[in-house]
Each structure stands twice: as structure tokens, then as C-alpha cells.
Write a structure and sequence with these properties.
- The complex is a heterodimer of chains A (about 475) and B (about 775).
- Chain A is built from 18 helices and 20 strands.
- With about 475 residues, chain A is of the alpha+beta class.
- Chain A folds into three domains: about 170 residues, Ubiquitin-like (UB roll) (Roll); about 60 residues, Uridine Diphospho-n-acetylenolpyruvylglucosamine Reductase, domain 2, CATH 3.30.43.10; about 240 residues, CO dehydrogenase flavoprotein, C-terminal domain (Enolase-like, domain 1).
- The model of chain A has no long low-confidence stretch (mean pLDDT about 95).
- Chain B has about 775 residues and is α+β, with helices and mostly antiparallel strands.
- Chain B has three domains: about 180 residues, Alpha-Beta Complex (Aldehyde Oxidoreductase, domain 3); about 350 residues, Aldehyde Oxidoreductase, domain 4, CATH 3.30.365.10; about 140 residues, Aldehyde oxidase/xanthine dehydrogenase, molybdopterin binding domain (Aldehyde Oxidoreductase, domain 4, 2-Layer Sandwich).
- Chain B has 19 helices and 29 strands.
- In chain B, strand 13 and strand 14 form a beta hairpin.
- In chain B, helix 6 crosses helix 7.
- The chains are: A alpha+beta (about 475), B alpha+beta (about 775).
- At the A-B interface, helix 2, helix 3, helix 4, helix 5 and helix 17 of A face helix 1, helix 3, strand 27, strand 28 and helix 17 of B.
- Bound molecules: FE2/S2 (inorganic) cluster (2 copies).
- One FE2/S2 (inorganic) cluster sits at the interface of chains A and B.
């Protein structure tokens, strides 16, 4: 049997895994009895289980905070793991991140604290001088019910300045990690389930043709919940995270190409310089640990009606490249989705890459996300608008919406009705009516159908206010999150 | 106030802070497991109200890993765990009363095996009519306890003769506690029919009692131990009982150690929450805005059983006045039975619900008169020497609300910012800013007089280290830290010599819940009493042994000194021990001077009042209802604070938690009565970005006029009322769309949708 190999506290661990869907958190708490990491939700939404994973990224080491509760243990293969127990120095003294938390009274009941500490550790290593916005982003996946967060923000600010810096032996770690590199995929063929982790695209394509019923696993931010919440059994899993070709990002004349296993964090970092209008939605897409684990390909493949990336990507004419065996094909993203949780992929076919075209000239673009909370909330509505004007007339418009139908969807009727029109208040008012007629959203715990319709129409109006010729409103005049006291 | 500004030695970190940050603080699920431990999962009702025709558990019993299954029939004692009224079945018997009610329990070799097995049960139900909302229950007179009525003067008459009236309705949603550590109980069977429980609970004594009842054994056969909770907030006061009982019944039946740890979804589906309330009001006032009479009808969603609804609703009634003298008053309060989770304690315990209603009304009055709401608030504050009796007959004798609000008004720059907000609103077509200052007054003590007692045990060991045990539980509020500080101060030693240990029913008996903010008031006093007895014995010993003058003996800086000599504390205790002086003691405390007539709803139920106020500034998007808190300024009265950094932490935490209740935290049930916001993915408590960039919290310089522990004031619950200012700032922003002359019908929680609804209603009315 193949063992899963990873580094914990600088030591190589090799373990035989009996059930490949055993979560990292279960392994830590139950097998290793490292009980510092807590379970608060088992669905990637509270951060009590946060651990840090380090991986080589070129010549550097990348630290990523992830939710141990939804990471399957074998996905750790080839990586270095840090938990809250890893931090104290040999003499028992606290790490600066920990000491700052003590000195600024950032823990009360303490149950969320180990998770915060680990998110702070990743921040400590990744960003030497974070702003308040950076701190918020780094801790966007950690819930604390006790403190109100001010003390934790203070602890983050002071963890750099008030204590002697502690560095890790990155060179040594890199060397260790290099030794764990696999040139060929590995499989665990166990009684409980089969797990395959190919390392090349060809291997993957072949495997999936052979096992079309296998569950494809990338970041696990959705599939993980099938196991922890729905208690589903997954007889066969194919993990994409080690497939080199799928982890690639290409930026060129053809646009941006994001491999299907690229994390949301990396994908967003690549896209935003070209489409800065997506920045806020990407920040609010999910918590940082979820963005660190989840992939853009996964979000797109999932095709959830409330997935946020699709409206944005559709608005800029994104295409998907599919692969089946050695066959490739490409299609417009909106053509991938047929009906609720139904897509155009065939048996054995998978997403290889997302292809975002280069930015066109004079593009007026916005993307809005509406939900109850700034950080880490699922949209009631996600709306993206892309417009080009010929003088003051609409020459091109794309409206793409999430949360408004059974699939992420464009608004062809409204788009059509706008073409050639003068981009003015009365045109937009008419288009708002059209948009309300074109969609019949559902009511659920996130919002009522009525709110979704009204707010979506109003977002079109906001888009107009931000793009109206000659008197466009600034972001600070329309966006509450851009306002300061 | 930050650590630096406070007296040295008092602003010390939480006693477990170094353990928290290292992941070394032990919660119940972290305790090393005993060999043979079984894991329990619960089978829950899928019906809101139904008769159970049959339960087929054969497939469950035969599932992999399953060791045993229990139903109500396996409970050897009483099938009830209700804290006051006995209407809370441990396992549903013939009838289920809400979706999520536990019906059976499965014990297996692993947590996952137990959870998987649960799903194999086949239960046949015969549906019965269900009441799913307060309005319907109210109409059907479906109550869990009899309605309550409070009368002062002739409200009807006074309303008639008032120059103006404000009439209307207001609704406020409930709130999930969302303690980060879910409910958990771990039970070990012991010899001779005894049991040891580790239970995440605010009320170990009650757990001891309900478990004994369920098993039909004596209280002395059950020990409950509680070192710390990962948050409680009221949710582990009575509602830890059902889990303690089920785990104990399984452990008793199978003779094995049993752990019952709830999955978050199950936890939220089973347990009760803060009561949502519906208010209908009629208030009379004059041209200045002074209130002459108030009539209010409040209906609380109690859920399927009484649980703590009686005291919760009583507290709501006793906080409808908040900081205001209301003239003649008539309050009718109903605890409405619905086929939903049985609502329970949650920080503030009805007080916030009662108080926000009067704030809503005052807000209305101000707008009807075209005044700044702050003016009208101030005008109605309780007087010092007159207009100072509450509707329930208690005289407000420690009032500092005038001074406190004046101080905050100027330190927060309220009036300049009021002008700046108006200017912003003139210049913006989409975004609107709002500003509000709201006050609070909160009564401290349990409304049930006999709960206001506490015990403690202090041991001084011969190396000079001290162990303290008391009846309170630690849930993050810093109780153990404060109690240790009290003991250290009493003995004149460094607080690091004092260790507070797990609450344990075999050490201090018959304790009250750690609730009603009374933790440090009661247990601090009891521990002080214990420490003082030891100190007094040491004083007598020094007087005899060293011929010291009693009055000269001082305990300070780890030393004891008297006129002519001094001795290190640890040396002294060795000497004392060798001279057979008892170096440990119990201590006891009961709060003086309380009275309460439940029928008439009159008396002096509170030892004293806490005060505070907050100013919040928000910006609202009038197209979508999105909003953001830009700045909050808080001034809060913690009396003579025992530990300012802990108190500040409590205040800030309560502020953000209360803000969640009033804005993003929305509980939703579907038509079948199933809670559909049962996990953090759908139920949104505040996160770090919600903490405002400008957040100024200060303690008001005060000391308690009553003889409380070190003249401090309780600080757990009162600050939960501070974020009223956020809600009313949002309302203020909306009202600016109609020149502040129309009252926006804003409901709580003010989600973007609720805000947009209020905006649209206002625009409709304004046009
Ligand atoms: S336990 Fe909540 S995110 Fe993992
Ligand atoms: S300290 Fe209790 S949840 Fe954060």
C-alpha cells in the first residue's frame, strides 16, 4: 500500500490511510491527539480548525491557511503542515503571534483562538506589513463570538513590531519537500474507497475515462461537505491538485488561461490586474482559507446557481476548455450550463482550463455581490455588467447574474433591448423593468424573490450611475464599503 | 481604556490566555478519552407536530459499529429535563413538538458510524396541526405559561389625555447563541451506580439534578465537572441538560463511557435561541416629547416548552423602561407556544428585547416632533430625585445616565457629526449616513431571589500557592481571572499564586447558573469571604505568635507585615500550618435586600443598575440596503472595574454580538417548521470586517454605590444593548430620504432586504 507522506513540525510523516475521505481534522484530533485544532462547524465556515500548509511555489515557500475539517487527509501528500501545536519555541516560549494575542487580550473563551493563531501565522509569513484591510482578509474565515475582533486586530498589528521576529528554516523545509515530490501519480486502492492523485494531464485524462463515475476532487471546499455533512460515501476519488498542467496559469496575447486546479487565490491574483472591477467580489467570494483551497475550475464545474465566479467570467466572455481522453474542446462559459446542476460535459470529460479573453478597449465593467455579510457569505444576488459605448449608444452589453435562476445566467432579452440605445436614465429605467420580467428568482433563507428582483434592477441602475457619460459617479458615492467615517 | 492607562496589576490577561493561544486549553472534547468510549448521535423529528405511530430502529441497531440504541422507554427515571416547568422530554415519547426534537439515540464505536446509523431509522408519524409563528399562537391563546400583566397608574386614562400618541407595531427576531464550541457531554460510569460528567454547561448543579432524575438516583451519585466552555452566552444554561441526560442514560444502559458531541447543524436544529418578540404599542406624549403613558403588548416566541421563558419575559417587562420614566404604564406579556425549538437564555435574557421597543418608540416620537432623537431620549431619562421609580416599583437610586450620556455626547463629537451627516446626505443621491446615540440601564440580579447566592472554597497550600473553587463557570468572560484577583488581593499575594479550578459539584454544592451577569458579583464575594476567613486566622496567629497588634497587620506584595516585623507569605503559611491553623475555608454570599412579587410584578428585583451608552455612525446604500458601520463610540459603567481589559473585552464583544442580532443574524424556518439557517453557511454572525475601523470603548469612571465585590459592576449582559445605536443609526439614514419626518418601518434584524423594504415603504409614503 502506498503511504501518504508529508512534513509535520519538520519531521517526515508517512501514514497508511484506511479511508481517503478521512479529514485532516479527524486525523489530527483523533489519531494524533493534537487537539489544539477545534471543530466548530465541519463545513469550512468558522475557522476553528484552521491549519497552515506550506508548499514550494517556484523557489519560494508559500504558506496557506486552510480549513482542516474539509481537507481529505491524502491531499496533504507532498506538503508541510503546521498546527497550533507547532508554534511554541523549544524553550516553551510563545511565538510572537501567540504572545501578541495574549498581550492584546485577543482570546476570551479561547475556542476560536487556535484557528485565529494559524491564520495570523500565515499572515505573519506572507505579509510583513499588513493594512487593516489585509488583516481583515487574512482573518475573514475565522469566526469569534466573544471578542468583537478589535483586540485581535490589535494583536495582528503588534505581532510584527513588539517581538523579535521568528523565521522558519525555509531552506531545510524546501529540501525536505523536494524529496517528497512524486514524478508519477499515486493511488490508494482501499476497501473503503479508491483514491487517485495523478500528476500529469495525460494520466488524469486516462484515469477519468477509465473511472467516469469517480468523483473529481480539487480544493474540497464543496466535496468535503458531502462527506462531513451529508455523510456521503465516495467510492472513487480523483484528485486534481497534483496535476502539473492544471496548476498552470498563462497570461498572453490570447488572454488569461487558468488551469482547473489553480486555487481561487492564485486565479484572482492573476485576473485582478486585468479586471480590477472584480477585486471586491473576489475578496468577498469566500473566506481566505476557502479561496486558498478551492479552485476556480471547481467553482465553474460545480455550476451552482449561487456561485459567484460565473457571472463575472461570463460578463467578460470567458470560455472553458474541456478535455476527454486526448480530445479537447472549448465553449463559451454560459453554454456549459444546461439546467439546475446539469452541464454540457460528457462522461469522462472534465474542465482543463478557464480562458479569459484579453480586456477589450473602453470596457465599462462592474461586478456586484449582495448578501447579509461582507466576509464569507453566499450571494443573494451576484451581478456583473459589461458595457461598451459607441458615443453614448450601447454597442455591446453583457449582463450575467447569479442567484436569479437555476443556473448562472446571462440576460439575453434585456441585453438585446439595450443594444443601440442611448445610455441614459430612461433607457436604463426601461431595462430595469425588462430585467425584472426576464427572471423569476426563488425565495430562500438568503433573500426573497422580491428583493432579488428589485435589487438586481437597482444594481443595473447603480451600474448606470457609475458609467453614465459625463457624470459618472465615483465608487465612494455608490459603494458603502468604500466610505469612511 | 487600554491596558497602559489602568492601575498596575489589575489589567491582567485572562488566566488561560497562554493556553488558548497554544491550543493547550482543554475543552470537553479534548479530554483524553477513556478506553471503551462510545459516541452518540441523535435521531431527530422531521415533523413540527405529530403523533409517533411507530419507530423502527432495526436497521439502526444493525448498522456497522453500532453498540446500542435508546428511546424514551430506556430512561429509568423521569423523562424530563425542564428547568422550571416539567414539559421538556429528554426523548420524545408518543408525540413530537418541533422539527429537530430528539427521539432516539445511537451509540457506536465512532462518531461517524453513529451519525450514519441514525439515518436508517424509520419513523411513522401522524401529523398534527402545528403553530409556527407568534401571531398565530397569540391568536390561538397558545401559551407556555400564563400571561403577565404589569400596571402602574391608569395608562388608559393617561393616554386619552396625552396631547399626542404614537401607536404601532415592531418586530424583533431571535438569535442563535452560536457558541463556537457546540454542546457536548462526556459521561463515565463509576462504581456503585455513580456517574462522572464533563459537560459544557453554565449550570453544573442543574445538570447534576436532571441527570439524577433521569436515572432515578440520588444527587450524590452524580458529579459534574466543568473547567471551561468554548462560549455559552445563555445557550448552555438550561439547554445543556438534554444532552447530559441522554449521554448519562446511554452510559447507564451500556455501562460504557459515552460522549455526546453535537454536529453544528444538529446543535442549531435542536437547541433554543433568543426569543423573537412582537410588540404592539400605544404611547402618549406631550409637545416636548415627554412620555406620559405607555401601553404595550409583547408576545415572545417561546417555542414548544416553557424552558426559561417565564424569567426571560419577566426581564423583558422589567426592561421596557430602559433608562426612561414612562408615567402610567400597562404591559401585557405573552409567552407564545410555537412548534419550534424551545427558546431560552441568551445574554440579556429578554432585557434587550424589552428595551429596544421603547427605543423604537422614542425614535418615532422624535421624528413626529421633528427633533433629534437624542433630545427626546434625554428628556425622558429617569430623574435623580423624582420621576425615579420604575414601573415595577423599584427606585432608581444609582442613576448616572445623565452624566454618562453628556460625557459621551461630547467625547464622540456628536453634534458636529450630526451636522456632517446631514451635509453628506444633502450631497449624495445613493448613499445616506445615519447617526444615533442610545443609552442603557440594566438591572443586575436574578429575578428569582433565591438564585442570588454563591459558595466558594479556598485552599492555601504550604508553599503559599492557592487554589480557589467556586460555583461559577468560565465561558470566556474572565470570571476565574477576576475571582483569582479578588482572592489574591485579599491575601496580599501575586495573582500568579492563585489558581482557579474547574467548577465541580462535589466541591461547591447547590450552585446557581452562571448567568444574569452575576458571576463575579456572587462568586467573587463568596471567594472573598473564604479568603477573608483564612486571612483572619492568619492575623490571629501572627498576633499570638509574634505579638503583633491586630490593626497593624497588613497583607501586601506577597508579604505580611506589622509594626515591628514582617514575613513572607509562604513562610507564614508554613508556620501557621505547623501551629495547626486551618489554611482552607469555604465562603458564602447572598445578595442583600431583594424582593419580587411575581403576581403583581412589583418589587425590588435588582441589587443595582448598570449604565452605558453608544454612538454609532453608519452608511446605507439606498439601492440595495447594504450598509456599513463606520464608527462606534462607547462609554460604559462597570463600576470600579476589577479588570478593565476583561471588561472592555466583554463590552466590545457584546456590542458586536448585539449588532449581529440586530442586523445580519436572521433565523428562518420553512413552511414545514424546519429551521433552514442551521449552520454558519446560512446563519451569519459578524466577522472581522464588521468590526468598525474606528471603535472607541471607554469605561465610565464610577464605583458601585452598593457594596459589591470591590465596588465593581457586572458587565456580561448590559453592553448587549449598546448596539441599539447601530440599528437606530440605520433607521436615521433611511429617514433622511424623507427629511427625517417619516418613521421608516424598519424591522430587526435589519438585513439588506429589511432595509430596502423600509426604504421602499418610506419612498412610497413620501411621494
Ligand atoms: S470546523 Fe469550522 S471551518 Fe473547520
Ligand atoms: S474567544 Fe470565544 S469565540 Fe473567540
Amino acid at each position: 500500500m502506498t503511504a501518504v507522506r508529508f512534513i509535520l513540525d519538520g519531521e517526515r510523516i508517512e501514514i497508511e490511510v484506511a479511508d481517503p475521505t478521512r479529514t485532516l481534522l479527524q486525523y489530527l484530533r483523533e489519531d494524533l491527539r493534537r487537539v489544539g485544532s477545534k471543530e466548530g462547524c465541519a463545513e469550512g465556515d468558522c475557522g476553528a480548525c484552521t491549519v497552515v500548509i506550506a508548499e514550494p511555489d517556484g523557489d519560494a515557500l508559500r504558506y496557506r491557511a486552510v480549513n482542516a475539517c474539509i481537507q481529505f487527509l491524502p491531499t496533504l501528500d507532498g506538503k508541510a503542515l503546521f498546527t497550533v501545536e507547532s508554534l511554541k519555541a523549544a524553550d516553551g516560549s510563545l511565538h510572537p503571534v501567540q504572545q501578541s494575542m495574549v498581550d492584546h487580550h485577543g482570546s476570551q473563551c479561547g475556542f476560536c483562538t487556535p484557528g485565529f493563531i494559524m491564520s495570523m501565522l500565515a499572515l505573519y509569513h506572507n505579509n510583513p506589513a499588513p493594512t487593516r484591510a489585509d488583516i481583515d482578509d487574512a482573518l475573514s474565515g475565522n469566526l469569534c463570538r466573544c471578542t468583537g475582533y478589535r483586540s485581535i486586530v490589535d494583536a495582528c498589528r503588534h505581532m510584527y513590531t513588539d517581538y523579535a521576529r521568528v523565521e522558519l528554516d525555509e531552506v531545510g523545509l524546501m529540501a525536505e519537500l523536494r524529496e517528497l515530490r512524486r514524478d508519477r501519480g499515486f493511488s490508494l486502492e482501499l476497501e473503503a474507497a479508491h483514491y487517485h492523485a495523478p500528476v500529469t494531464l495525460a494520466e488524469l485524462a486516462e484515469l477519468y475515462l477509465e473511472h467516469p463515475d469517480a468523483q473529481i476532487l480539487a480544493g474540497g471546499t464543496d466535496v468535503g461537505l458531502w462527506v462531513t455533512k451529508q455523510l456521503r460515501e465516495l467510492p472513487a476519488v480523483i484528485y486534481l491538485g497534483n496535476v502539473a498542467e492544471l496548476r498552470r496559469i498563462g497570461v498572453g496575447a490570447e488572454g488569461i488561461e487558468i488551469g482547473a486546479a489553480v486555487t481561487l487565490t492564485d486565479a484572482f491574483d492573476t485576473i485582478v490586474p486585468h479586471y480590477p472591477e472584480f477585486g471586491e467580489m473576489f475578496r468577498r467570494f469566500a473566506s481566505l482559507p476557502v479561496r486558498n483551497a478551492g479552485t476556480l475550475g471547481g467553482n465553474v464545474a460545480n455550476g451552482s446557481p449561487i456561485g459567484d465566479s460565473m457571472p463575472a467570467l461570463m460578463a467578460v466572455a470567458t470560455r472553458v476548455r474541456l478535455r476527454r481522453g486526448d480530445q479537447q474542446r472549448e465553449m463559451a462559459l454560459e453554454d456549459l450550463y444546461l439546467d439546475y446542476m446539469k452541464n454540457a460535459m460528457q462522461e469522462g470529460e472534465f474542465i482543463e482550463a478557464i480562458v479569459i479573453p484579453p480586456r477589450v478597449d473602453a470596457l465599462l465593467l462592474r461586478c456586484y455581490k449582495l448578501c447579509k455579510r461582507y466576509d464569507q457569505d453566499i450571494s443573494a444576488v451576484c451581478a456583473a455588467f459589461a458595457l461598451r459605448l459607441d458615443g453614448e449608444r450601447v454597442s455591446e452589453i453583457r449582463i450575467a447574474l447569479g442567484g436569479m435562476a437555476a443556473i448562472p445566467k446571462r440576460a439575453p432579452q434585456t441585453e438585446q433591448s439595450l443594444l443601440g440605445k442611448h445610455w441614459d436614465e430612461s433607457t436604463v429605467r426601461t431595462a430595469m423593468d425588462s430585467l425584472r420580467r426576464e427572471f423569476t428568482p426563488l425565495s430562500d433563507m438568503r433573500a426573497s424573490a422580491g428583493y432579488r428582483s428589485r435589487a438586481t434592477a437597482n444594481l443595473l441602475y447603480r451600474f448606470y450611475l457609475e458609467t453614465r457619460p459625463g457624470q459618472a459617479l465615483d465608487n465612494t458615492a455608490v459603494n458603502v464599503f468604500a466610505v469612511t467615517a | 481604556m487600554r491596558a497602559k492607562e489602568t492601575a498596575p496589576g489589575r489589567a491582567i490577561p485572562h488566566e488561560s490566555a497562554s493556553l488558548h493561544v497554544a491550543g493547550e486549553a482543554t475543552y470537553v472534547d479534548d479530554i483524553p478519552e477513556l478506553a471503551g468510549t462510545l459516541y452518540v448521535a441523535l435521531g431527530l423529528s422531521s415533523e413540527a407536530h405529530a403523533r409517533i405511530r411507530s419507530i423502527d430502529l432495526e436497521a439502526v441497531q444493525n448498522a456497522p459499529g453500532v453498540v446500542g440504541v435508546i428511546t424514551a422507554a430506556d430512561i429509568p427515571g423521569v423523562n424530563d429535563c425542564g428547568p422550571i416547568i416539567h414539559d421538556d422530554p429528554i426523548l420524545a415519547d408518543s408525540e413530537v413538538q418541533f422539527v429537530g426534537q430528539p427521539i432516539f439515540a445511537v451509540a457506536a464505536n465512532s462518531y461517524t458510524a453513529a451519525r450514519k446509523a441514525v439515518r436508517l431509522a424509520e419513523i411513522d408519524y401522524e401529523s398534527l396541526p402545528a403553530v409556527l409563528d407568534v401571531a398565530t399562537g397569540r391568536q390561538q391563546q397558545s401559551f407556555v405559561i400564563p400571561p403577565m400583566h404589569l400596571r402602574r397608574g391608569d395608562a388608559e386614562q393617561a393616554l386619552q389625555s396625552s396631547p399626542s400618541r404614537s401607536q404601532g407595531a415592531f418586530s424583533i427576531g431571535g438569535q442563535e447563541q452560536f457558541y463556537l464550541e457546540g454542546q457536548i457531554s462526556y459521561v463515565a460510569p463509576k462504581e456503585d451506580g455513580c456517574f462522572h460528567l464533563w459537560c459544557s454547561t453554565q449550570h453544573p448543579t442543574e445538570m447534576q439534578q436532571v441527570v439524577a432524575h433521569a436515572l432515578g438516583i440520588d444527587f450524590n451519585q452524580v458529579v459534574v465537572e466543568m473547567r471551561r466552555m468554548g462560549g455559552g452566552f445563555g445557550g448552555k444554561e438550561s439547554q445543556s441538560a438534554i444532552f447530559a441526560c441522554i449521554a448519562a442514560v446511554v452510559a447507564s444502559k451500556l455501562g460504557r463511557p459515552v460522549k455526546l458531541r453535537l454536529d453544528r447543524d444538529d446543535d442549531m436544529t435542536i437547541t433554543g435561541k433568543r426569543h423573537g418578540f412582537e410588540f404592539a404599542y400605544d404611547v402618549g406624549y406631550d409637545d416636548d416629547g415627554q412620555i406620559h403613558a405607555a401601553r404595550v403588548d409583547m408576545a415572545a416566541q417561546a417555542g414548544f416548552s416553557a424552558d426559561l421563558s417565564g424569567p426571560v419575559v419577566t426581564r423583558a417587562v422589567c426592561h421596557f423602561d430602559n433608562a426612561y420614566y414612562l408615567g402610567d404604564v400597562a404591559i401585557d406579556a405573552y409567552s407564545v407556544r410555537t412548534n419550534t425549538q424551545s427558546n431560552t437564555a441568551f445574554r440579556g435574557f429578554g432585557g434587550p428585547q424589552g428595551a429596544i421597543a421603547i427605543e423604537y418608540i422614542i425614535d418615532n416620537i422624535a421624528r413626529q416632533l421633528g427633533k433629534d432623537p437624542l433630545q427626546v431620549r434625554k428628556l425622558n431619562f429617569y430623574g435623580r430625585d423624582e420621576r425615579n421609580v420604575t414601573p415595577y416599583g423599584q427606585t432608581v437610586s444609582d442613576n448616572v445616565i445623565h452624566e454618562l450620556v453628556d460625557e459621551l455626547e461630547s467625547s464622540s463629537d456628536y453634534s458636529a457629526r450630526r451636522k456632517a451627516v446631514a451635509a453628506f446626505n444633502r450631497d449624495n443621491e445613493v448613499l445616506r449616513k445615519g447617526l444615533a446615540l442610545t443609552p442603557l440601564k440594566f438591572g443586575i440580579s436574578f429575578n428569582v431571589v433565591h438564585f442570588n447566592q454563591a459558595g466558594a472554597l479556598v485552599h492555601v497550600y504550604t508553599d503559599g500557592s492557592v487554589l480557589v473553587n467556586h460555583g461559577g463557570t468560565e465561558m470566556g468572560q474572565g470570571l476565574h481571572t477576576k475571582v483569582s484577583q479578588v482572592v489574591a488581593l485579599e491575601l496580599g499575594i501575586d495573582v500568579r499564586r492563585v489558581r482557579a479550578t474547574a467548577n465541580d459539584t462535589s466541591k461547591v454544592a447547590n450552585t446557581s447558573a452562571t448567568a444574569a451577569s452575576t458571576g463575579s458579583d456572587l462568586n467573587g464575594k463568596a471567594a472573598q469571604d473564604a479568603a477573608r476567613q483564612i486571612r483572619n486566622r492568619l492575623i490571629r496567629f501572627i498576633a499570638e505568635e509574634h505579638g503583633a497588634n491586630l490593626a497593624d497587620i497588613e497583607f501586601a506584595g506577597d508579604r505580611v507585615s506589622w509594626g515591628s516585623g514582617e514575613i513572607a507569605f509562604d513562610e507564614l503559611v508554613v508556620q501557621a500550618y505547623q501551629n495547626r491553623v486551618q489554611l482552607w475555608s469555604d465562603g458564602f454570599y447572598k445578595t442583600p435586600g431583594l424582593s419580587w412579587d411575581r403576581e403583581a410584578m412589583q418589587g425590588s428585583p435588582f441589587y443595582y443598575f448598570s449604565y452605558g451608552a453608544a454612538v454609532s455612525e453608519v452608511v446605507v446604500d439606498t439601492l440595495t440596503g447594504e450598509w456599513k458601520l463606520l464608527r462606534a463610540d462607547i462609554l460604559h459603567d462597570a463600576g470600579n472595574s476589577i479588570n478593565p481589559v476583561i471588561d472592555i473585552g466583554q463590552i466590545e464583544g457584546a456590542f458586536i454580538q448585539g449588532m449581529g442580532w440586530l442586523t445580519s443574524e436572521e433565523l428562518r424556518w420553512n413552511e414545514a417548521g424546519r429551521l433552514i439557517t442551521h449552520a454558519p453557511s446560512t446563519y451569519k454572525i459578524p466577522t472581522i470586517t464588521d468590526c468598525p475601523q474606528k471603535f472607541n470603548t471607554r469605561l465610565y469612571q464610577n464605583h458601585n454605590v452598593e457594596d459589591t465585590i470591590l465596588r465593581s459592576k457586572a458587565v456580561g449582559e448590559p453592553p448587549l444593548l449598546l448596539p441599539f445605536s447601530v440599528f437606530f443609526a440605520i433607521r436615521d439614514a433611511i429617514a433622511s430620504l424623507a427629511d427625517n419626518r417619516i418613521n421608516p418601518p424598519l424591522r430587526a434584524p435589519a438585513t439588506p432586504e429589511a432595509i430596502l423594504d423600509a426604504i421602499d415603504a418610506l419612498r412610497g409614503e413620501h411621494q
